[in-house]
Amino acid sequence: MAETPEIIDTQLIRALQREGRASYQDLARELRLPRATVSARLRSLLENSTVRVVAAVDPAFLGQHVIAHVSVVASGPVGHIAGEIAHWSEAVLVSAIGGTHDLIAEIRVASHDELHALLTQLREHPNVAYIDTLIYTGVVKGFFISQYAGEVSIDDVDTQLIEILQKDGRASYRDLAAAVGLSPTAARTRVQRLLDARIIKISAVEARGAGGRQLSMGVGMNLAGDNDAVLDLLRRSSHVEFVAQTVGRFDAVATLAASSPRELLDQLEQIRSLPGVSRIDSWLHLEVVKEDYARRIV
């Protein structure tokens, strides 16, 4: 039985999340499909904005050593709050959700003092009733976290390449070379160096929420016992896009993706059944107001 376009698209997006610059030939080989089919499906996904393939600079390279997951309960329309947070350069994700809270945001800053200042500003918003904050202590799985280890420097040409790739992670080496005045071979070498040094990661961003192809759900977990075993199982799950250990009301948070409410329920049931998971809370992404990992390097 031939696979449907929807199944092909899901497999293609998952492959691009793992390797955003994978060639059509490599994608076709991995999906066991004709190259022409893969090319046509990817072109369709990109043209209708179902997916974007972009580069993101690792937070550690940018000096963003504090990453917070902020949940907001609104006392008025949530759109006003979301709009304000979306304008913050420190916010990479802002989403209206259904659940105990009304809005979540991921904030990346250099210090706890900077985070405190932003949260104070948020609390002063007239439509904010209260906020809950989690601090990431470690990212177990994340398509845009590359775990930069340090001791690698970049120059102006590297910076130009990164800025282009943040807009189009699949820009050809010929186009990259023309933009920065290098040969395609030299451009390829520089991009590979940025990837190998874990300064950048190139992956796919899929549209989420009501306007997206798939449903997306956040999960907060309280753990007991062997936390590493639970986190490893979540890391290896194809339905789990993101996992982080946290300090706060949860010990870990994760993001699930599925094509239907039934699939999301199945994933929640699997998490509930894991030894070491004592309690979970969940929220559905209704509208992703902002998901932007591009950052200016200064």
Automatic annotation (TrEMBL):
Q: Which domain of life is it from?
A: Bacteria
Sorted alphabetically, the keyword list is: DNA-binding, Transcription, Transcription regulation
The record, for Gene3D superfamilies, names:
3.30.70.920, Winged helix-like DNA-binding domain superfamily/Winged helix DNA-binding domain
Q: Which InterPro entries match?
A: AsnC-type_HTH_dom, Dimeric_a/b-barrel, PF0864-like_C, Tscrpt_reg_AsnC-like, Tscrpt_reg_AsnC/Lrp_C, WH-like_DNA-bd_sf, WH_DNA-bd_sf
This protein's GO cellular component annotations are: cytosol
Occurrences of domain HTH asnC-type (ranges): 8-65, 154-214
Q: Output one GO MF annotation.
A: sequence-specific DNA binding
Pfam families to which the protein is assigned, alphabetical: AsnC_trans_reg, AsnC_trans_reg_3, HTH_AsnC-type
One of this protein's GO BP terms? response to amino acid
Can you say what this protein is called?
A: DNA-binding Lrp family transcriptional regulator
Top-down, what is the taxonomic lineage of the species of origin?
Bacteria, Bacillati, Actinomycetota, Actinomycetes, Micrococcales
